[in-house]
Amino acid sequence: MSAFLSPGFPSLDQMLSEPGSSSTVLRIAIGARLRKLRDAAGFSPAQAAVRIRCHESKISRLECGKSPLKERDVLDLLELYGAHPMEQAAAAELVELSNMPGWWERYSVVPDWFDKLIGLQEGAEVIWTYEVLLVPGLLQTQRYAFAVTEAGFPLADRVDIEARVRLRGERQKILRRKDGPRLWALIDSGVLERMIGSRAVMRGQIQHLINLMNHPQITLQIVPRDFITVGTPVTLIRFPLDLPDIVYLENSLGAQYLDRRKETEHFRALLDPLSTTAHSPEETRRILAAALKRYQ
Hints:
The protein is of the alpha/beta class. The protein is built from 13 helices and six strands.
């Protein structure tokens, strides 16, 4: 299996062997490998498209991992680029693995635009998130998540809301995995003052944040109110393989996924000052303790 992606992807076998392996990230890894092979062979996307009789946009979608892979497409491209026979032999198995459904697909409440985020976080090495309105989903308590979901989906019935809350709880299991990602969460100070649910819900949520500060893989910082911030929630995801960072931007109607270097570096440049200007973890712990007292 490792022959296909071994150049530049030394930890792929280990990643696939872990329970947290992500077919979403594997699809992106295969696409990145195809792009490298195409560049090495001297083909433009348009030339490759002509040779395998498809539209140029399909080559772009394959290389960016934005659509399910087809074995025939991958094999045709590998042959065109002169890939080693061992790579071609391993491709079919890798394509099949990349199309395996994720555990979250059994939840009917997952919209298509959110499906990809869960898959990306499953295979992430680092998740760097900044939130301006709410506690990040990966750090929410069940009661806080229920209150947020109830307010955000006023037409949903209780069964639907409970399904969404269970899904959020399932997503949080990546933080308990031995090979789970490092989470760096920057939270605007206004989040602690915004009443969600009830005082009891807020007490439980803030205490949960205090407890999570002892987690070795979680860094939590509060961003001062007077700091000029990004203005919108941003999540930057980094992977253990030689893959591009991806920025996730969510809005009320869906989400954007940005993977071009110019785009991801732009948001990295916005997040860097936040992490240095935000309160230190020690000061954040004191701020959380003070907020907890306000909800007594």
